[in-house]
Amino acid sequence: MVSLQEQLLKAGLVDKKKVQKVNQDKSKQMKIERRTGAESVNESREAALEAQRKNAERARELNAQRDAQAAQKAVRAQIAQLVQQNRQPRAKSGKGDIAYNFTHGSKIERIYVSEQVQQHLISGRLVIVFLNGNYELVPKVIGEKIAERDADSVIQLKKAETAPQGEEDDPYADFKIPDDFTW
Question: Residues in the chain with pLDDT < 50?
Fold first, then answer.
């Protein structure tokens, strides 16, 4: 097999003096390495390895971004599907609708609902969800599932109160009902 030096000489790209000079420099470097015990640093190889490390790191970052975007897209699709399958009508008729005001961010928004839907919103049985520029009404259970995935999508979610207000002033609170009592 013909060496690279011989091929370059035959092609006329280098002359014999340059080949000898390179060989001398190489042998001097080898002698120095043997005497000192230190290895010479191949700068081009180190630069190539560094470039390879940087490219690998950049590829990992891009893959992480792509994965995060795909996960976010999947969450948005899940939310859209939940809303589509469980949205509630706002009003049964166009007449007699009541304006229901709520805050979205720093703005006060308004939707028109029937009296029954308004009572469900006030009691917390229905939740307002913001999806693709529209406000939709969904049941509280679905609103909680949506809030787990993306809390910013849920506009109004009332938390259940721990104790009803009437029990605090109950005059019969001190009187316990026996377990064996039958009517």
Answer: 162-163
